[in-house]
Design a protein that fits this description.
The chain has one domain. Helix content is about 0%, strand content about 45%. Strand 4 and strand 5 form a beta hairpin. About 25% of the residues are buried. The protein is mainly β. The chain is globular and about 45 Å long. It has no helices and seven strands.
Length: about 130
């Protein structure tokens, strides 16, 4: 359910600095799903934020996780739920638990949260 020209992101939380290498540095980002479960992603900080982060930055802080919206519906509690896939052409990534499909509250979605130049496609080895 891609809307023409919209790049979707799920609001998430950058929880901590992981390592200085590889440059520019690695952080942990947490996505909370509609059921209240937390999922963790590890990546370069600029994959999740426009902020310049360091080990000494204050955590937690707001982050964004690139995703495709695959469906929307109302749950039995009348909440709008968005099914998302984080294995996107922009920045395909699985959680540390090996998952890429999640149900989140629709109000966690943000259009174009990070600039297009910042969310570069991953290059796969041939």
């Amino acid at each position: 359910m891609s809307e023409e020209g919209v790049r979707w992101f799920a609001r998430a939380t950058i929880t901590r600095w992981v390592d200085d290498d590889p440059q520019p540095g690695i952080v942990e980002c947490r996505l909370d799903d509609a059921a209240g479960r937390s999922w963790f992603f590890i990546g370069k900080y600029y994959d999740f934020t426009q902020d310049e982060l360091r080990a000494t930055s204050q955590y937690p802080r707001r982050g964004y996780l690139a995703c495709d919206v695959t469906a929307r519906r109302r749950d039995d509690r009348k909440r709008e739920i968005a099914s998302i896939d984080t294995d996107t052409p922009d920045r395909g990534r699985d959680s540390e638990e090996g998952m890429c499909a999640f149900d989140i509250l629709a109000d966690q979605l943000v259009a174009d949260a990070l600039p297009a130049w910042q969310v570069l496609p991953l290059v796969s080895e041939s």
